[in-house]
Design brief:
The complex is a heterodimer of chains A (about 400) and B (about 270).
Chain A (H helix, E strand, L loop, with lengths): L3 E15 L6 H6 L5 E15 L3 E5 L6 H8 L7 E6 L3 E4 L12 H11 L4 H15 L14 H13 L5 E4 L8 H16 L3 E5 L3 H7 L2 E6 L2 E7 H21 L4 E2 L4 E9 L8 E3 L4 E9 L6 E9 L5 E6 L11 E9 L7 E11 L5 E14 L27
Chain B lengths: L1 H9 L1 H16 L8 H20 L18 H22 L7 H6 L6 H28 L10 H25 L2 H15 L7 H4 L4 H7 L5 H11 L7 H25 L3 H4 L1
Helix pairs in contact in B: 2-6, 3-4, 3-6, 4-6, 4-7, 4-8, 4-11, 6-7, 7-11, 7-12, 11-12
The chains are: A alpha/beta (about 400), B mainly alpha (about 270).
Chain lengths: ~400, ~270
């Protein structure tokens, strides 16, 4: 017996993209045939997932990640090739699958559980845990249509993480929701790994892939571009994604300046001085600019401003002059701006950079929110809400209330 | 195919949950809840009794005479055939759209697709059980006690359920590709109803039109309906010849329907 839990051999999957699909007899008779294009979503995927390992699948939108997951889950059947699976399988492609608004929380737990391949007994043993996590014990006999969206989401999530198959497929879904879900989800995945179960995880969160998966597969246009240890695959994926961002910048409209000095490129560096696009809260981060200037430009200063990408909120801004640093350009060189303990919390951030004269009257070159990086939660730090990490301490004291 | 049957069996808990969901949702929010399953047939029987005794004044009907000579009022005779007909017709009417109606589930999770039409048949079966209980009580009160022939009821019912499942597998698969079926089936079931001796007895046609009787006997539901009334109301043995003919239909339809469903189901999640 081999210890391969899941294997795909030569899996091809195409979709027909109908320009117009006829469902009625009249249309079928009148239009002789339906015009469609064939789109190959998977082109000969070969994959083996050893039992007890966790595989991450990464790739751009439309690269075939979800199709591959659905094919493995048997929701789609491949045109060619086949998928082999050992043991029971649950696929978590969405939360609250099969939930019916008229049924009570309790009824939905059992219905949803059985749709995820759980037996009644398995749901029985986990029922208390589900209710406990959802925190809605007193509402379990109420139809879920009366739930708040938060209660509904918690219950759906609790059912999803209660599954106990041999092989688990997880799509993005579990990364939606609040921090508490993510932590619970990571905990559950770790538990799964400890039990020697097999997991396939599709995620846009490269950090999650790197942290949770031993190996990873990078899909591009329905083919495997690279596979191997997750850190390496994610690394090469990022390098390319980063390159793509830079190329995009060259034609960016968010740029202005007199041209006396020019920012050639911008990089975000980690503690080891390597280029990165993602950071964890509390880790060192350096922004490095390479510049070129006319020889006569002296007495310049550099400004850095950081914004939240989602809301556009201005998080902080600093200037080399205000910090008492003199910069004299004159030729080519680099400027590095370092945050020793990145104080930003989870999210995507955009950076504006500028080179200008000391009086701020002439802007030599400026990029407006053209560069971005992402920050992920650092598991070693407490959970915080908002944009910035703030050092803090708590103190409590109780005194009995006198009668 | 054998694996597919095994998968359906393995998913029996899920099937039961789906049936339970359908039944619960149907009665959720109503004051009497599941009690309606009993109330409705009781009211229907009372209505028929009044209509056929005082308005249409149809004489008591019987395919064969009861050994004890008791008359069977036409309303009860009709209701008996109707319960079995409803089992068949409800299965087809709700089952035909069972796959198209579950589009969302099909795209998000795997389960043996054949349990969708199956749960429609099982839900119809549950409704049938309630109607059957009412039928037995009414028959006991108005016509007289049943005979040991009553033990044939499970055989007849299972046979009709298998026949219905075969048709439902076929129709639900075809509906995915041709939505017209949903419209067509409503009208078609009306024709089928009048082509089945539910609201009339084959004896009424008698020897005047032997050709018509011969055609009606080709209907795979004729045997079960006639036999069902024999064993429940008339204390008589089933019509074994017609029942055997119908059993052949049930097996053929289950195999044909199952085979087509099995062949086509891989496309369901993409088309629905």
């Amino acid at each position: 017996m081999t210890d391969i839990a899941l294997s795909c051999s030569g899996v091809w999957k195409s979709y027909r993209i109908y320009h117009h699909r006829s469902h009625s007899l009249k249309e079928k008779v009148l239009t002789r045939r339906n015009a469609y294009e064939v789109f190959w979503a998977l082109k000969g995927i070969d994959l083996e997932v050893p039992a007890g390992t966790t595989l991450g699948i990464i790739g751009h939108n439309g690269s075939g990640k979800s199709t591959l997951l659905k094919t493995v889950a048997r929701i789609l059947s491949p045109n060619r090739g086949h998928v082999e699976l050992k043991g029971t399988l649950s696929s978590l492609l969405e939360l609250g699958i099969g939930f019916h608004p008229e049924l009570t929380g309790r009824e939905n737990v059992y219905l949803g559980g059985s749709l995820l391949g759980q037996s009644r007994r398995q749901v029985d043993t986990r029922y208390d845990e589900i209710v406990d996590f959802a925190g809605i014990e007193q509402f379990m006999d109420m139809p879920v249509k009366n739930y708040s969206s938060g209660m509904y989401a918690r219950l759906a999530f609790a059912v999803a993480v209660s599954v106990d198959p041999d092989v688990l497929l997880i799509d993005e879904v579990l990364s939606v929701g609040d921090e508490r879900f993510q932590i619970k989800c990571y905990e559950r995945i770790s538990e799964f790994r400890a039990q020697g179960k097999t997991i396939v995880l599709v995620s846009h969160s490269l950090d999650a892939i790197r942290a949770l998966c031993g190996s990873a597969v990078w899909l591009e246009n329905g083919e495997i571009r690279e596979e191997g240890a997750s850190a390496e695959v994610v690394g090469s994926y990022l390098r390319e994604a980063h390159g793509a961002v830079e190329r995009q910048l060259e034609s960016s409209a968010h740029r202005l300046g007199s041209g006396q000095a020019e920012i050639l490129d911008v990089a975000f560096l980690n503690a080891a001085g390597k280029e990165e696009a993602t950071f964890r809260t509390g880790e060192p981060m350096t922004i490095r600019m390479r510049y070129r200037s006319a020889p006569e430009v002296n007495d310049a200063s550099c400004g850095v401003a950081v914004y939240r990408a989602d809301t556009g909120d201005y998080v902080f801004g600093q200037n080399s002059k205000a910090a008492g640093v003199d910069i004299s350009l004159g030729g080519m060189g680099t400027i590095e701006f370092t945050l020793p303990d990145l104080p930003l919390l989870q999210g995507r951030y955009e950076v504006s950079l500028s080179l200008h004269d000391n009086n701020m009257t002439t802007i030599f070159d400026r990029f407006d929110r053209a560069h971005s990086f992402s920050v992920y939660h650092n598991p070693e730090m407490p959970i915080e809400a908002g944009s910035v990490h703030v050092a803090s301490s708590w103190k409590t004291s109780t005194s009995p209330v006198g009668v | 195919m054998r694996r597919a049957v095994g998968e359906v069996f393995a998913a029996r808990e899920l099937t039961a949950n789906l049936v339970r969901r359908d039944l619960k949702v149907r009665h959720r929010g109503s004051l009497l809840g599941m009690l309606w399953s009993l109330t409705t047939p009781v009211l229907v029987v009372c209505l028929y009794y009044v209509v056929f005794r005082y308005i249409l004044r149809v004489a008591p009907a019987a395919d064969v005479a009861r050994p004890d000579g008791n008359d069977v009022p036409f309303a009860i005779y009709f209701f008996a055939g109707l319960t079995l007909w409803n089992l068949f017709s409800n299965s087809l009417l709700t089952g035909a759209g069972s796959v198209t109606g579950a589009g969302y589930l099909l795209r998000k999770v795997y389960f043996p697709r054949a349990i969708l039409p199956l749960s429609a048949v099982l839900a119809a079966l549950v409704t049938f059980v309630f109607e059957f209980v009412v039928l037995l009580m009414v028959s006991l009160a108005i016509v007289g006690p049943p005979s040991p022939h009553l033990l044939w009821v499970p055989v007849i019912v299972v046979q009709v359920a298998v026949l219905a499942y075969g048709f439902t597998l076929l129709l639900s698969a075809v509906t995915v590709f041709l939505r017209d079926v949903a419209h067509f089936i409503g009208v078609f079931m009306q024709f089928w109803f009048w082509g089945t001796p539910v609201i009339y007895s084959l004896q009424w046609i008698g020897n005047d039109h032997p050709g018509v009787v011969r055609v009606l006997k080709l209907n795979p539901l004729t045997g079960p309906v006639v036999s069902f009334r024999n064993v429940v109301l008339l204390n008589h043995a089933p019509n074994f010849k017609l029942l055997a003919y119908s059993a052949v239909w049930a097996v053929v339809m289950a195999v044909v329907g199952g085979w087509i469903f099995h062949r086509w189901q891989r496309l369901f999640s993409e088309i629905v």
